[in-house]
From TrEMBL:
SMART domains from the UniProt entry: cNMP (SM00100), HTH_CRP (SM00419)
UniProt entry tagged with the keyword Transcription: yes
Organism lineage string: Bacteria, Pseudomonadati, Pseudomonadota, Alphaproteobacteria, Hyphomicrobiales
Protein name, as recorded: CRP-like cAMP-binding protein
Keyword Transcription found: yes
Organism: Bradyrhizobium huanghuaihaiense
């Protein structure tokens, strides 16, 4: 995995504003070539097929996974069985915190949404590298700080915004990060099912289906087979002020 493959990497989570989260600090980009090689040297390539768990809530932690290709969803499963999606992570992101060095139990689950290739970095070896290199230690801290901001922003949104506002905020975020301007339309380049969107805002698939249909009828969006096209971004902005 080259450093170039990690540039401009991002993730999808629920946040009140883009400024609350900012850009994802890549784990490898700030490092010198020697430190990059040292990290990758302890790694082991793994592949997870769509629907396969990287780990389940309660499993013992043993390291982190750098995503090279694919998409991984992190979620919390409540005792009732309800799942709350924390984020979708893409190439350049890592999953496996907050205990980077492999202690304790995982407090949420991570599952591959599509075929995903990762590099597993074992906790004890990663800890040894952090003790040897201040640059590696700082890169790990920066990545953890980013994730903490993600989850804090998500908690704020869930606690202070209505579910309608959360859906609109999510669509705005997707349009800015993954949108491609095509004339007056913004095409979101990554497909999402109604269930995906519902998981991200803490709602139900049925409710999201109704809301998207209403927005489509008002000429705000167009939705077909997972492809979202924003027709009136201003209308979404006005409704989340």
């Amino acid at each position: 995995m080259s450093a170039a493959s990690l540039r401009n990497a991002t993730s999808i989570m629920l946040a009140g504003s883009d400024a609350q989260v900012g850009s994802l600090p890549s784990l490898l980009d700030p490092l010198c070539e020697a430190d990059r090689r040292r990290i990758l040297a302890i790694g082991r390539k793994e592949v997870f097929q769509a629907g396969q768990h990287v780990w389940r809530q309660g499993d013992l932690q043993n390291g982190i996974y750098l995503i090279e290709e694919g998409r991984i969803r992190s979620y919390y499963a409540a005792p009732s069985g309800r799942e709350v999606t924390l984020a979708y992570w893409f190439a350049g992101n890592f999953v496996g915190g907050p205990d980077l060095f492999g202690t304790g139990a995982h407090v949420w689950s991570s599952v591959a949404v599509e075929r995903s290739q990762v590099t597993f970095l074992p906790g004890p070896a990663l800890r040894a590298l952090a003790l040897q290199s201040a640059s590696i230690a700082v890169a790990l801290l920066d990545a953890l700080a980013f994730k903490a901001r993600c989850y804090s922003a998500m908690a704020q949104m869930l606690g202070t915004r209505s579910v309608t506002e959360r859906l609109h905020r999510l669509l705005i975020f997707l349009s800015k990060v993954y949108g491609s301007q095509q004339g007056r339309e913004i095409v979101i380049g990554i497909p999402f099912t109604h269930g995906d969107l519902a998981n991200l805002i803490g709602s139900t698939r049925q409710w999201v289906t109704v809301q998207l249909s209403r927005m489509q009828a008002r000429g705000v969006i167009r939705y077909h087979r997972g492809l979202i096209v924003i027709l009136n971004l201003r209308a979404l902005d006005l409704e989340v002020v």
